[in-house]
Amino acid sequence: MIKGARQRQADDPVLADILALIQKSFAYMDGRIDPPSSMLVLTIADIARQCESGEVWSIGAPVKACVFLTRKPDCLYLGKMAVASEARGQGLGAQLVEIAAQRALALGYHTLELQTRIELIENYRIFAALGFTKTAETAHPGYDRVTSITMRKAIGA
């Protein structure tokens, strides 16, 4: 596993730091994406539930990067991936993807999946550089236009 990476538990006091990291890292999206990010209503209790129903991983002390992992029928889904602004460019995003790949293989999956908002062109460029390819375009409920891009990465095949 990646040095300094930890899987978090529902009662972990670091969940507040993870929430703060996500809020700070996603703040630039405010007013830029429509519909607004679910981060705006995310709570520590939500993160604790994610720890129980899926996995929450973080890197660093203090927390510099995090990702939520959720099992889907045919893949492991990466959500709420965040890297502190002062830690960007240090490979932490790639390390989070590596953690996800290791966990996916351990759980019997050979595919990672994530979504990024259509407006965030820089995000899908970053994910493409990490080996993800666009597989679908989707719309949030109530929208008649594309709001998200789904990307996948084959692993361990």
Keywords:
seven-stranded mixed beta sheet; 29% helix; 27% strand; alpha+beta; single chain; 7 strands
Write structural notes for this entry:
The chain contains four helices and seven strands; from the N terminus they run βααβββαβαββ. The protein has helices spanning 15-26, 44-53, 92-106, 121-129; strands at residues 5-7, 55-59, 65-71, 76-83, 111-117, 133-138, 148-154. A seven-stranded mixed β-sheet has the order 1-2-3-4-5-7-6, with helices on both faces. The chain is globular and about 40 Å long. 31% of the residues are buried. The mean pLDDT is 94.
Brief summary of the model shown:
The chain is α+β, with helices and mostly antiparallel strands and 157 residues long.
Strand content: 25-35%
Please report the distance between the alpha carbons of the first and last residues: 19 Å
Mean pLDDT: 94
Rg over CA atoms: 15 Å
* Count of DSSP H/I helices: 4
How much helical structure, as a percent, in the residues? 25-40%
| Overall morphology | globular
* Largest sheet entry: 7 strands, mixed
Assign the structural class, choosing from mainly alpha, mainly beta, alpha/beta, alpha+beta, or little secondary structure: alpha+beta
Indicate the low-confidence ranges by residue numbers: none
Number of strands: 7
Order of helices and strands: EHHEEEHEHEE
Enumerate the strands of the largest sheet in spatial order, edge to edge or round the barrel: 1-2-3-4-5-7-6
